[in-house]
Amino acid sequence: MVAGITGRTVESVVTEKTETGKTYGTIASEAGVLEEFKAEALEIKKDQLTAQVAAGVMTQERANTIIAALEENQVNCDGTGSGEMGKALGAKFGANGKGMGTERGSRGQGMGLRDGSCN
């Protein structure tokens, strides 16, 4: 996502993250595209939640609660977030990048957006 927003290659963004320890959000912020990064990350998470509701894994009410919390969290986002918001809500956005978790709690795997995604 950061590569697409910044016009860089995926390899260059991953290398910078690996070599510097910066979050993807920090890289986006330094490139002056944090707002675009936050908006795209939120839309991806909303799409994943919609899919989970459609699959019967999560209720629409639970998805709405998570979306509201994600949107609220973005107000103070600076791109260096820990990603604990999604985990606390049972969505586990970002634990391992293996698909979104469920409302069943700690058994779900993350979407791969934890790193500085402001959510």
How many strand elements?
0
Q: Please, what is the average pLDDT?
A: 78
Q: What form results from the Cα inertia axes?
A: elongated
Structural class, from secondary structure content? mainly alpha
Rg from C-alpha positions? 14 Å
Strand percent estimate: under 5%
How are helices and strands ordered from N to C? HHHHHH
* Low confidence ranges: 94-116
Number of helices: 6
The percent range for helix content is 40-55%
**Biggest sheet architecture:** none
The rounded distance between the terminal residues' Cα atoms is 15 Å
Overview of this protein structure:
With 119 residues, the protein is an all-alpha fold. It has six helices and no strands. It is elongated. The two termini are 15 Å apart.
Set down the secondary structure blueprint.
Layout (H helix, E strand, L loop, with lengths): L1 H5 L3 H11 L3 H7 L3 H21 L5 H15 L9 H5 L31
Helix pairs in contact: 3-4, 4-5
What descriptive keywords fit this protein?
54% helix, 119 residues, mainly alpha
At a glance:
It is built from six helices and no strands. The chain has helices at 2-6, 10-20, 24-30, 34-54, 60-74, 84-88.
